[in-house]
């Protein structure tokens, strides 16, 4: 097993999301590896973050590979789920419509695992977490 392709996957996901016109129209430049430090009340209405990742071996006798399960989350301080769900749909379209190109290794498969939409207490913030699975192979 190798974790060598994790950074290449993250960079490709980030580049795809920040370069997607439909997603940019919804969230502007609010796409981050981690939520930025913000003063209370200064948060953008929608914010996308790259989240946790779990990796397991997918090597064979002839190749070195890994399965990367990772999260992308839409955070919203808006009422209702309409805008965060639209942003989540744009994330899906951006990542799944055209295969990602990695700086090293290659993508064998990328698919959606599941999506969870949840609301904070009362009229609190909304959150839509998208889970993806990427199968990667290392080039030699």
Task: Write up this protein.
- The relative contact order is 0.23.
- By secondary structure, the chain is α+β, with helices and mostly antiparallel strands.
- It is built from 3 helices and 5 strands; from the N terminus they run ααβββαββ.
- It has one domain: 2-Layer Sandwich (STM4215-like), CATH 3.30.2000.
- The chain has a 5-stranded mixed β-sheet with strand order 1-2-3-5-4.
For the record, the count of structural domains works out to: 1
State the end-to-end CA separation. Answer: 14 Å
What is the helix fraction of residues, given as a range?
25-40%
Radius of gyration: 16 Å
Number-wise, the strands total 5
The ordered H/E elements are: HHEEEHEE
β-sheet strand percentage: 35-45%
Class in CATH? Alpha Beta
Read across the widest sheet, the strand sequence of neighbours is 1-2-3-5-4
Protein name: DUF3168 domain-containing protein
Organism: Halovulum dunhuangense
Pfam families: Tail_completion_gp17
Give me a quick take on this structure.
The protein has helices spanning 6-18, 21-27, 82-96; strands at 31-32, 46-57, 65-76, 106-119, 126-137.
SSE topology:
Layout: H1 6-18, H2 21-27, E1 31-32, E2 46-57, E3 65-76, H3 82-96, E4 106-119, E5 126-137
Parallel strand pairs: 1-2
Antiparallel strand pairs: 2-3, 3-5, 4-5
InterPro entries: Gp17-like (IPR021508), Viral_Tail_Comp_sf (IPR053745)
Protein name: DUF3168 domain-containing protein
Keywords:
37% strand; STM4215-like; alpha+beta; Viral_Tail_Comp_sf; 5 strands; 140 residues; Gp17-like; five-stranded mixed sheet; 3 helices
